[in-house]
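Retry 2 of 3 after timeout on previous attempt. Resubmitting structure tokens to design endpoint.
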């Protein structure tokens, strides 16, 4: 870790010192102890049920869509004592919530369009997440290369005045002004150092081209594993209201009267539940699901964004733990930062009609590589550096902006009242960023509470999430946590640090459970153990091998997947989840095909040849 907690693999970061931090030693929320139930048996206190187990039940609220926004509403309503069901047509957090640039940020560039309240809200939420999810959200030092003093001044003024202007690189004056404002707006719950502007440092000679004369440095944050935080929100919600449950691979197909129809994507079976209110949190699918929910359409438009994960030690070293934030020559804002032992590069911004069809086009990979060559002319980049790609669709409010990048990232909650065919109100979440999920969820939960005639009992503002509860705020506290877990479990320091990195304070209970089962490292990925994989399969609603590989672990995004590792994981999942040999083979082939076709993972072994475990 660098002094500012910039992203590195290895030892976990202590959260930045902050007021309101829960005391160290608080019970870990959100992560159960790892027991050993029989194969195929879900954990006893699981929030997850299959649709058949839901048939005929009544819920005060059904939340449709288990991305970060739906999960945020679920957690908030559960905290108020409201019994809820949350469902997703795919895996938990498999939509846009698994595909962000992983920045927890205020949105520096939104200042130009005068979106001060959005930036103020987003910087406040960033600061809250640094405290409430200190196990997964870490500060990120960010560097902006600057070539001119006055560049972009006219364009920025025009955009600020609401007039359209073609893009041009922002110079020192514009960026300096923006950062001064950014610091000021981000002062609430303040935990970040102020920005600085300086002549380009000699150490950055290996990074930027000769044209770069100054660099501006400021601080935002990044999230290590967004999908895990969504699972923790659901787990926390179920802990607070045990009647509240969740179901993945469960599509809402209709809403008539008070009846919501759910279709199990694994079995094809349809069941019905009843509800007093329904929340449409389907992100980029909002208008499509409005059809099934008898709501209004035409509220969102989607733009897809692709990211690359590079194996590029020279770039990673030259970044020195910082994110580089810059404009490409076509005006698109791009980001590059060290992500664990890799480098994350993003992103494109291309309008799409159907979020289900969004895929990374090879031309997007070439575009991002070209941008890297332009900004880092002293380094070489090629397709061979790309170990993984991912894509998602931003749920943006309808807009007539000229360019996708100019569309507001703000959010809103709108209510479709009951109508001739639907007897319950439909509360719709429009737009939003990952960073601001809590405040959007609060807005939506308040709307639901009003419809139910109930009042808010508690705010989520100071509430830690999952393994963020009890995470120490400083390095000595973190050392004590590692000491405690090591002493209680007998696991090695490295292993304990890994578990704390992944599960925060939840590592306390997990380490003991894994140690009791021997904690044997995986042969092809020794940083995970067999008991850990069994826990993930059993307690986090893994239905397909790809759920485990792509969203429950960081193995795929780190470019660690091989056919042999896929085979090893499939063997454990099959034993734990009771898959037949045929199901095991089908899952393995499907997972490998997904990694190859959707994420550009190059397997040394062709999938047409049989994969042995
Ligand atoms: C490329 C890209 C980069 C981004 N970068 C950042 C960033 O760095 N920082 C940041 O703050 N934000 C970022 N965002 C924005 C952020 O990721 C999204 O705003 C956020 O994840 C949206 O969450 P959501 O829950 O509304 O939508 P989603 O996560 O898309 O969830 C909607 C869910 O609804 C489900 N669904 C749809 N129809 C049905 C149905 N009929 N029945 C059941 N379920 C259904 C879908 O399967 C999906 O899982 C980025 C987004 C993208 C795409």
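Retry 2 succeeded. Sequence:
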């Amino acid at each position: 870790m660098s002094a500012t907690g910039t992203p590195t693999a290895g030892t976990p970061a202590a959260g930045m010192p902050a007021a309101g931090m829960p005391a160290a030693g608080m019970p870990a929320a959100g992560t159960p102890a790892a027991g050993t139930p029989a194969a195929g048996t879900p954990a006893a206190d699981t929030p997850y049920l299959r649709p058949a187990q839901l048939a005929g039940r009544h819920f005060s609220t059904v939340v449709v869509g288990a991305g970060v926004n739906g999960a945020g509403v679920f957690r908030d309503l559960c905290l108020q004592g409201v019994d809820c069901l949350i469902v997703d047509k795919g895996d938990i957090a498999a939509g846009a919530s698994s595909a962000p640039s992983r920045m927890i940020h205020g949105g520096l560039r939104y200042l130009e369009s005068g979106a001060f309240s959005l930036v103020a809200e987003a910087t406040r939420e960033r600061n809250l997440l640094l405290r409430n999810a200190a196990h997964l959200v870490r500060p990120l030092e960010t560097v902006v290369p600057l070539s001119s003093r006055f560049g972009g001044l006219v364009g920025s003024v025009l955009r600020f005045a609401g007039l359209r202007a073609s893009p041009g690189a922002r110079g020192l004056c514009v960026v300096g002004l923006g950062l001064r404002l950014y610091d000021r707006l981000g002062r609430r719950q303040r935990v970040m150092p102020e920005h600085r502007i300086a002549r380009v440092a000699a150490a950055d000679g290996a990074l930027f081209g000769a044209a770069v004369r100054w660099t501006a440095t400021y601080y935002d944050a990044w999230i290590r594993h967004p999908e895990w935080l969504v699972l923790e929100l659901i787990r926390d919600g179920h802990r607070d209201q045990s009647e509240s449950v969740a179901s993945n691979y469960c599509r809402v197909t209709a809403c008539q009267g008070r009846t919501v129809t759910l279709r199990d994507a694994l079995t094809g079976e349809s069941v019905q539940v009843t509800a007093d209110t329904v929340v449409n949190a389907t992100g980029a699918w909002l208008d499509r699901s409005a059809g099934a929910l008898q709501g209004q359409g035409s509220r969102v438009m989607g733009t897809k964004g692709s990211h690359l994960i590079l194996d590029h030690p020279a770039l990673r070293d030259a970044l020195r733990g910082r994110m580089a934030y810059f404009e490409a020559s076509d005006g698109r804002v791009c980001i590059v930062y060290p992500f664990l032992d890799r480098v994350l590069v993003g992103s494109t911004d291309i309008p799409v009609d159907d979020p289900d069809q969004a895929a990374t086009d090879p031309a997007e990979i070439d575009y991002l590589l070209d941008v890297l060559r332009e900004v880092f002319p002293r380094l070489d980049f090629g397709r061979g550096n790309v170990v993984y790609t991912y894509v998602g669709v931003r749920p943006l409010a309808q807009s007539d902006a000229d360019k996708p990048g100019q569309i507001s990232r703000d959010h809103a909650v709108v209510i479709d009242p009951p109508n001739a065919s639907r007897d319950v109100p439909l509360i719709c979440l429009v737009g939003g960023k990952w960073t601001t999920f809590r405040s959007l969820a609060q807005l939506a939960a308040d709307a639901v509470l009003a419809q139910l005639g109930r009042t808010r009992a508690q705010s989520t503002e100071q509430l830690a999430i999952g393994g963020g509860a009890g995470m120490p705020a400083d390095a000595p506290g973190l050392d004590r946590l590692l000491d405690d877990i090591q002493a209680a479990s007998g696991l090695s320091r490295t292993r304990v640090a890994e578990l704390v990195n992944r599960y925060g304070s939840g590592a306390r209970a997990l380490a003991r459970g894994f140690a009791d089962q021997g904690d044997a490292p995986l042969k092809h990925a020794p940083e995970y153990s067999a008991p850990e994989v069994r826990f993930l399969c059993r307690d986090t609603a893994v239905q397909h091998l790809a759920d485990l590989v792509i969203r429950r672990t960081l193995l795929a995004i780190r470019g660690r997947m091989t056919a042999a590792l896929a085979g090893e994981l499939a063997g454990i999942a099959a034993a734990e989840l009771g898959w037949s040999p045929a199901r095991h083979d089908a899952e393995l082939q499907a997972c490998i095909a997904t990694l190859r076709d959707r994420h550009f993972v190059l397997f040394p072994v062709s999938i047409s040849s049989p994969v042995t475990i």
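Attempt log closed. The domain at 48-97+229-299+409-452 is CATH 3.50.50.60 (FAD/NAD(P)-binding domain).
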